[in-house]
Amino acid sequence: MEILVVEDEAGIADFLKRGLEAEGYEVTAAADGVSGERLALGQGADLVILDRMLPGRDGIEVLAAIGRARPALPVILLSARAEVADRVEGLDLGAVDYVTKPFAFDELLARVRARLRESDGASETSLGEAGIRLDLLTREARRGDLTVRLPGRESELLAHLMRNAGRVCTREEILAAVWGYEHDPGTNVVQVYVGYLRRKLGLPGSPAPIETVRSVGYRLKARKR
User: Going by fewer Cβ within 10 Å, which terminus of the chain is more open, N or C?
Assistant: First the structure.
């Protein structure tokens, strides 16, 4: 997957480029709206991370141009402007997400993954990891002889853990990917929902394979291949 970062603050652009490349993405960067728009319309990018305030051409203008020429291309807007009206404007103009500065990289990464899945994984109907099979359409999870139907948030949480099996998912990342909006950092909602999954997917003598990594987050234990 190729990601285009359009950001005029060199420190942020370099931080994003290095972080995304470390996750396996190909990254192209542009420092102004004119070159950013040209690269976005050049058919190469699978997703654009677009700063709202840019020299040469405003980010909102670039977003509108992308919407006209490549409406299926997902765009995540970055901005220091956190007012509700600003968020609404960006989303109404076609952005798939709106992230305010300063931001945690893990949160942005979770949003990138989610938006790429939406655009590229429409045909994905089930997941299988750690002895669990999850039907994404019916939200039924199977483990051994056990079959349970999971409510929306529980299904989305399990899907996120399964897609990242073997890797520790931070609480902040999970909040962004599953709940999709900013939460009080002190909330225990992730812990509560992990508890629901553990109770529902546990088997006699075989607890659900969801580990707590103290002070960090949770990990679905992947089977050795």
Answer: C
